[in-house]
Design a protein that fits this description.
By secondary structure, the protein is mainly α. It is 74% helix and 0% strand. It is built from eight helices and no strands. Helix 2 runs antiparallel to helix 6, helix 5 packs across helix 8 and helix 6 packs across helix 8. The longest helix has 23 residues. The chain starts with a helix and ends with a helix.
């Protein structure tokens, strides 16, 4: 893969990287750092990508690993940041976003990847390295929790 192709693919996936990072870290500055680190890591490890068609999945997996590392470090330092930086267009959007943000991380990841980013359950399983059945059960659990929260 050439540097130009790599750059084009990064630019094409910029929005999803931001959304996935924001869903996990909930802090603009941390998300920017995580995305930059993930892109740098991807560039350095580009030779490990076996098939270019999986670039997007591979890149998101790198970002998730970077975000998880940041969350572990944050937990160790006991810093609790609650800067969502989310703008919405209606009161209903605010309510739904708040309900999604309140979900446990593992369930929230699956809900966002499925509904916001339109990944299939198989793709989500590959990204998160979990079985498809686990993806389905987290989707089901997330729907039930959202329904309870929004009723």
């Amino acid at each position: 893969m050439t540097k130009e192709t790599f750059t084009e693919l990064i630019m094409a996936n910029e929005e999803i990287l931001y959304k996935v990072g924001m869903s996990m870290l909930k802090n603009e500055t941390d998300v920017q750092d995580a995305v930059q680190t993930a892109v740098l890591t991807a560039f350095e490890k580009l030779s490990t990508l076996k098939c270019e068609e999986y670039f997007r999945t591979w890149l998101i997996r790198i970002l998730i690993n970077v975000c998880n590392k940041q969350l572990r470090q944050r937990k160790r330092r006991a810093e609790f940041m609650d800067n969502h930086g989310v703008t919405t267009s209606s009161a209903e959007d605010v309510e739904v976003r708040a309900a999604v943000e309140a979900l446990p991380l593992k369930i929230r990841q699956v809900i966002i990847l499925y509904y916001s980013e339109r990944f299939t359950t198989k793709e989500i399983g590959e990204i998160l390295r979990i079985p498809k059945g686990t993806v389905l059960s987290r989707l089901d659990r997330g729907r039930k929790l959202l329904k309870m929260e929004l009723e």
